[in-house]
């Protein structure tokens, strides 16, 4: 199988530099890193990809079974690392992808040598003595929101969005395509993400880890950031003066500064 | 003055000015009033979502005082939790990347605990240096629209449920039909000592119930009986008659294996069962017995036909011919009927081929108007004379497949042969 095509892998930047894998979370695709990439390309080999079921990954590779657990997404990461022979890479994961990186590092220790967790949450739903910020009903509401918003996705447009159509005249209609996903696949990713519980996996982390949180983030509130930081021994916690769940878009300078400082400290 | 669409006069005309003045006087509208009382919600927020300006329409929908909102709430505070999640994972990133986003379905939380479906569009206002300054958002009432969409969604879910149910019913029906089908045709032919047998059945009916039938079964320690026929009609009605015929012939043959006697019994039963009830059902059929002679290796065939196309005999020497049974009547039409018998002897390498008219009446040619016919079947049989029954049936199956949609009737084939002395042509079974 051509993993590069399956996961729409793009390798850019310094071919001799250390590999930095940028992994998008639930919602959109690798375009989310467009303001991060410029800060990294000079020194690092930057690896971008889309999870199967998102962005321009090959939709025919989707399997509800595989992607009903975060392990399936972690296997995507490991397979990308293997296909491009990445060793000791720095894995930068946003949101749920931060946890995917933890799982992938556990599956292939030689591939992933450091973790950057951007707005991570190991569990979104409140539990005894743990506040994730959401109830199970809230997640059902999100699924309903997904049902009401297909974001430019339609069966007819799917081939264009997936990048294998030869109809450039449709290009201008591609509004919202960064977040356009087959609704059935998006539902699977949403359920997997928001029903996951990876709190126990945090203890398995053995690599240098940077945790980035925002001052105001409804999805990953600060107490979750503190929980992740506490659970990973030796991790560094940086609180970005940013609102929302996507500091790499809303506060790119501060985010890039934190990431590059962490990368520089790894040498 | 001559104007074109490409060169509009910036000054306007006297007529237009008069009209504008009249409209302005009539409406007495100010930009402020247009903003505040617009039939949609307006909202301006800082880049972090803090509400900087909000119009009266939206405040009314929310049930909020202006002082409670401006400077104190963020846009996401107006949304339901599901909407917040959606905003953070889709809306905000897209707005950042594209600078604008339109027509997103969300719900706003009202002060009285209610929820109001809305459609939201946002655009980022940038400063002269391109830096993002604030976000402008319009909010449209989507209550009617959402109700309509929910109807559509409900309709789709009901249709999907109906389809699932239909598929389950269909699967159950097919299982039931498969069981019935087994009662109409033998799953495998019994081994006949000193002979090889092969059969093929093609059903034109989508429920796989056909009106053609065949069987081979032992009569006593020495002899075997066989039959092959065609019930008038297709589908389940034909299949019901087929079942009756199969078991009547089997019972009749055990009582008296003479072919004419067996067919006469069948005729009586069919006529009594159907014709007397005003629902005539009839069939054509060839019934016969096989009597192997272990000393010569030959097999004596006695058969009788009721209105069925003549069987073919394929000889070991590469010739083939029909075994005529002219004048036999359809079975089941008249209270008593005359049937014609015939006999032949199969030597090693010879094969008896029984068929139904599905094959001879297959439509051939470019426009599917010609029939395959008896001549072509005889020629085909001659080409394959000397081959063992399995090979003959295999060749005929290929021929049937080649007919494509020209084959629109049930077709049954039964080949009964005596193995040639050459061991290579022996039936592998």
From TrEMBL, chain A:
Residues 20-258 form the AB hydrolase-1 domain. InterPro entries: AB_hydrolase_1 (IPR000073), AB_hydrolase_fold (IPR029058). It holds the Pfam family Abhydrolase_6. It comes from the Bacteria. One of its GO terms (molecular function) is catalytic activity. Belongs to the AB hydrolase superfamily. This is Sigma-B regulation protein RsbQ. It comes from Streptomyces prasinopilosus. The lineage of its organism: Bacteria, Bacillati, Actinomycetota, Actinomycetes, Kitasatosporales.
UniProtKB/TrEMBL annotation, chain B:
Pfam families: PAS_9, SpoIIE. Residues 27-79 form the PAS domain. Keywords: Coiled coil, Hydrolase. Gene3D superfamilies: PAS domain, PPM-type phosphatase domain. It comes from the Bacteria. Residues 145-183 form a coiled coil. One of its GO terms (molecular function) is phosphatase activity. The keyword Ribonucleoprotein does not apply. This is Sigma-B regulation protein RsbU (Phosphoserine phosphatase). It comes from Streptomyces prasinopilosus.
